[in-house]
Protein: Precorrin-8X methylmutase
Amino acid sequence: MTEITIIEPARIEARSFEIITEILGNKTFPAEQQGIIKRVIHTSADFDYADNLVFGHNAVKSGVAALKAGCTVVTDTRMAFAGINQKNLSKLGAAKACFIDDPQVMEQAKAGGVTRAAMAMELAARDAKNSIFAIGNAPTALLMLRDLILAGKLSPALVVGVPVGFVNVVEAKELFMELNVPYIVAKGRKGGSNVAAAIINALMLEALK
Amino acid sequence: MTEITIIEPARIEARSFEIITEILGNKTFPAEQQGIIKRVIHTSADFDYADNLVFGHNAVKSGVAALKAGCTVVTDTRMAFAGINQKNLSKLGAAKACFIDDPQVMEQAKAGGVTRAAMAMELAARDAKNSIFAIGNAPTALLMLRDLILAGKLSPALVVGVPVGFVNVVEAKELFMELNVPYIVAKGRKGGSNVAAAIINALMLEALK
Structure:
C-alpha cells in the first residue's frame, strides 16, 4: 500500500554507510577507528561524532583482543545492555552484564549515599579481569571506574566512556582521559546508551572480521 | 578520591533541566510540549530536537489520556523497551510490549520477505485498542503502522515516530505525518530508541502530575 520505493532491508545498512561516507567527504580517520565512528553516526544521524570521539591507549586493538578472548562487557544501563548484539557476542564467546537492578547494588547504594550506577561498577570490578566497561548514561559510573583504576583495583581492557548530559558529564570525561588505560570517550555533553551499544557492536564486527 | 565537585544525584536531573532551559533562552513551546522536548534534549544533549519535533492531532493529550487509562506501549526495539520506566508504567497501571524477538514474528517475517520490525507491528496491531506505538529504529515499522491505519485496521492513541537513519527514514516520517492520527515525529534523519523512550517517559510524568 505504501507508495514510496523502499530499499530492501538487506541493503539498508550498506546503503546507509555509503551515504555517511559521502557526507563525510574528504574527512578521514585512522583505519581502525573508521568503523566505530561511522556506526555511531549511523545510530544517531549526528555528525558531531565525527569530531568528538577520542581514542586513547590502543583502545580499538585492546577492545577487539578482549572480545576475541571472550570477555564480559559491563554496561551501566539496561538500555545499553539491550542494544548490544547478542548473536555476535555468542559468536565471540563473549558475554554482557548489567548490575544496575541487582538487589545488592540497590541496597548498598542507598546505604552508602552513592548512585546505583557507581555501586554497580564497584560490584562488577570485583571480578573483572580483562573486561570492557560501556558507560552511556552515568558520569558517576565513569568516576567510580576512575577511582578503582587509580586505587589499583581495576585494570580494564577498555572503557567506553560516553555518558550524556549537562551535569558532571564533561568533567568526568575530561578526568577519565587523563588515565593510562584504553578508552573511547565522546568529548563534551553528547553520548548515550545507544552510542555506547553502537561502539561495542562496531568493535564486535572488527573482532569477527 | 575524585577531585571535582559532584552535584548530588538527587539534584542532577533538576539542575540539568535548568541548564537546558537557560540554553534554550527565549525559545518557547506550547505548554504541553515543553516537558517532552526538554526531556529529549536531556537524553541526547542535542538541541536540534528543539526544532524538529512535530506534534500532530492532539498528540500529548491523547497519549497522556491513554497512559492514564492503563494502555500498552508497543516498541519496535528491545532498547526502547528497556528505556521505558517500569516504575512509572506500574503506577499508571500501564504496560509495555515488544514483539521483535517473538518466534512467530521471526518466522512470518522470513516467509513474507518483510522486516521483523514491520511484522512485529502487524502482530501488535491485532490487539491494540487505545495503544501507543513507539518507533525509534525501523522506518518499516512506521510504514506498516501507516498501512494498517489506512486499511482501517488500527486506530492508535498515539504514534511516536522517531526512527533514525539514512535510508527510507525521512520519507517514512513525511508520509506518516499526512495521517489523521495523533503523532509525535522527529522530522529529518534524527531519532533513536533513546529518543522514543524519552518521549514515553516524559508523557508518563505528565500523566502522573
About this structure: The longest helix of chain A spans residues 9-24. The mean pLDDT of chain A is 92. DSSP finds eleven helices and six strands in chain A.
